[in-house]
Amino acid sequence: MQVTTLSFDNIHTHGPLFTDLLRARHRTFIQHAQWDLPQVDGMEFDQYDTPASRWVAVHEYGRILAGVRLTPTTHRCGMYTYMIRDAQQGLLGTIPNDLLYDEAPVAPHVWEGSRIFICPDVPSAVRVRVQMQLIGQMVAAGREVGATSVIAILPTACERLARRVGIDWNVVGPVRNIDGVDCVCIQPSLAMKMH
Question: What is the rounded CA–CA span in Å between residue 123 and residue 120?
């Protein structure tokens, strides 16, 4: 199992890994979860997939197992900033605008984790290992760009995973149902110790 952090600076050195990641997002979010998201040629993407972002891919033998996108909260592309902030400002009709208790952070040391997924067909026997690889590399990638914390929307069921891998996070918003799944905004510190 390999874990790779992609950026616009290094995408060219990893062959089809980036497009494979977008295809895995398509299978996960559009085909499996039935979300209505932008797509082309079997790839899912949105306005937050910009040169400012980083993408973590867990992969094995040419197959994507999991991924996450990291975007600086200070980034702006046209009218968009990052998903949670844009939802709070009412720019995204599919995500509630009351995700956070406070105003969405805009700071160089805070990045957003979005499009977090583990492919539905990943066998349960390796799922925890895949989760650990994804979280470990997300922490490393965030630290590499100077982030000390990440803000993300996760299903409430992920709290068990957090305890299992030793992540301390603050819940920074109320539970909200998004596309039939109870979700909550969390903000873990990247100073955590991985078990």
Answer: 8
